[in-house]
Amino acid sequence: MGPSGETEDSRLGDAAYYAVAIAAGGVVGAIGTIFHLAVDRIGTWPSVLSGGFGERGLLLMVVMALIAAAMVMVSVLIVRTYAPEAAGSGVQEIEGALEGLRPVRWKRILPVKFFAGLLALGSGLVAGREGPTIHMGASVCQAASEWLRLSTRDTRGLLAAGAAAGLAAAFNAPLAAILFVIEETRRQFPYGLRTYTAVILASVTSAIVTEGIAGVGPDMQIDVPDMPLLFLPAFVGLGVILGGVGVLFNAVLIQALDLARTIGLRWSFYIVPAAVGLTIGVLLIVRPEATMGGEALAVTLAGERLPLLVIAGIVVIRFVMTMASYSTGVPGGIFAPILALATAIGVLYGTSLGAVMTLPEGALAALAVAAMGGLFSATVRAPLVGMVLVAELTGAYSVLVPVILTCVFANVVAEALGGKPIYEVLLDRTLRLAGQTPPPPAALAADGSEPIGGWDQRERKG
């Protein structure tokens, strides 16, 4: 053991450690951007197929349903065969790894997350690309850590840096990615100048590479004018509503996962993916707004004035399909679906207000943007990340104060209702199903370097 209590693994100097973080960030940025562009490309198959049919009849619907179902089922097959831990977002897996409770088996996670994720997201499922990129980003850094034989503390710092770089690549939002580590992994991250600087360098490098490949600019550009001060109470009300919706979202998501698992254990694990895939294939024709991650939908909704009942229908169907898609067990995140659902709720709220009062110019767009941050805050329970993520995604810095109000009140209401952060709940569920329990906070050393009962200790003994 060294003087700091760490193992005798290699401990790089600060300059070398930062160089590794920069290099890893560049690799993650390239992988994440290629993944993003590939998802966009493969996601065009419904329009290509539709163009090959003279009219949108029953035959087209059947063919699209079968193709979507096949893509989802193959994705599930790859995950279940080669890397079960690649299912879902992956954020909870990284948090578990930072606590020493979950291994990051990068050799199988990287290919499975990439190719199974392409099939899942390309099929039209309501899932986001950010989950896979975060998990792949951490896997790249795990590979570097093993190659360099870094200490436990340095490895965990680099894992967090890789996860942040993945988020930066997914949304071109480096500041939100840095804050995500600070706020979301505050219980696990081994804070220090060295590890914190590595997170910053990896995130910024990833964003630079992303912009170099895909171009510069917000991923979801929405033009919003300044809101009058007298309209600020509307954002407080929106935050209160979203606080309740966030708690409901988290509870139903866990129930959907448990129901899908029960069905899988009783009959077959492919029943739910097949059913959801068939449904997605049909919806790609009859209700395309109910499919895909939803980034484009969010921008469209914020700029259109749709009838109240139409918006309400979009809210309901997006909520249901988000739950159904995530329960299939494919690689996919929930950030993007949350943002799209929130936009619909914000527009629904604004349209309802417009029926009883005169709204200021651009109010619907402002409420849509604020709702993104509010629902994110209520589900992920990271309000600071929600504020900054929305600003970087949309470029709508003019409504920063309304966004802050919405995020704060959504977070407060979610806390008052007893809601827990979704990734904390997902991690607890993962550990419970694996027969593990997280250690109490006192079981971790002050620097997070020596977990009790962690996977790294078991591997060293082995």
UniProtKB/TrEMBL annotation:
| Keyword line | Chloride, Ion transport, Membrane, Transmembrane, Transmembrane helix, Transport
State the InterPro entries in the record: Cl-channel_core (IPR014743), ClC (IPR001807)
- One GO molecular-function entry: voltage-gated chloride channel activity
Q: Where is this chain's protein located in or outside the cell?
A: Membrane
Which portions of the sequence form the region Disordered?
438-462
Transmembrane segment boundaries: 15-37, 58-79, 158-182, 194-217, 229-255, 267-286, 306-328, 334-356, 363-384, 396-414
Recorded hits in SUPFAM superfamilies, A to Z, give: Clc chloride channel
According to its record, how does it sit in the membrane?
Multi-pass membrane protein
Q: Which CDD domains match?
A: EriC
Q: Is Transmembrane included in the keywords of this UniProt record?
A: yes
- A Pfam entry, by short name: Voltage_CLC
Q: Which GO terms describe its cellular component?
A: plasma membrane
Query: What main location does UniProt list?
Result: membrane
Question: What is the protein name given in its UniProt record?
Answer: CIC family chloride channel protein
Q: Does the keyword Plastid apply?
A: no
Q: Which organism is it from?
A: Aquabacter spiritensis
